[in-house]
Amino acid sequence: MKVLITGATGLIGTQLTKECHNAGISVNYLTTSKKKIENKPNYKGFYWNPYKEEIDPDAFTDVTTIINLVGATISKRWTKSYKKTIIESRTQTANLIFKTLKNNKTSVRHFISASGVSIYPNSESRLYTEEDTAVDDTFLAEVVQKWEASADQFKKLDMRVAKVRTGVVLAEEEGAFPKLLKPIEKGFGAPLGSGKQWLSWIHIDDIACVYVHIIKNGLRGIYNATAPNPVTNEKMTRKIASYLNKDLWLPNVPGFVLRLILGEMAVLVLKGQLVSSKKLEESGFEFRYVNVAPAIKNLLK
């Protein structure tokens, strides 16, 4: 079996490549950097430039599944121009792949797209499942809607389409976890805002395995990729502090302060969703990290 991954050198893509190789799945990947192109028996890189609609058609040779992970980081100030970049980095890339597949005969039958739980409205009490149709009024929700729409077009090519609504990915060196960890290590840790906002998290090992699970089982539809036991921002902060033997003596960081510092981006830390992983579990997926304490211990070992 061979898959094609976009964003293969990113946080999730790197771990996913390892899990694919562990499962005996060969990986082709698309990169905008010719310096990152490698040519190994089970790991081959191909150049593309989505903004110029350039792509190497050889990337699709013998590929049965495409995993589209590419997208500009959302952890950079949301200027008007950068908002456009965030959206286009997710939609134009998918559009180019769609156009290429439409115009060429390939063996691709399965398209899997990253997505986000930020499509769900902020709530401290409602448990969201994949059946929920309510959409938040934030920029992040808009991004997810357009992201998923760009994935749905592949159904026109008679492909199975899966959309992986990912929660906050916890990884040792990149993403949200180091940002949560650093102030606590320095003795300045504190819950953000009310601290009651939900943080639907997932360990980096598990999110990579989710994709392999979807590949192997040919799944289609929406799947929430979050651990079975979400935690609040306050609980996450206290769990990390406890493991580090640090006291949280500071009061919660007020929401208005975070809005002054981060602007519209403050929704990243002040809003949250309580998300169910039941559908994924019912499909046969088994999480390695069900609770946050063992996940934190693993990342800090």
UniProtKB/TrEMBL annotation:
InterPro entries with a match to the protein in the record: DUF1731, Epimerase_deHydtase, NAD(P)-bd_dom_sf, SDR39U1
UniProt xrefs under Gene3D superfamilies: NAD(P)-binding Rossmann-like Domain (3.40.50.720)
Recorded superkingdom: Bacteria
Ranges of residues in domain DUF1731: 253-299
Transmembrane parts of this sequence: none
Family: Belongs to the NAD(P)-dependent epimerase/dehydratase family. SDR39U1 subfamily.
PANTHER family (alphabetical): EPIMERASE FAMILY PROTEIN SDR39U1, SUGAR NUCLEOTIDE EPIMERASE RELATED
Protein's UniProt name: TIGR01777 family protein
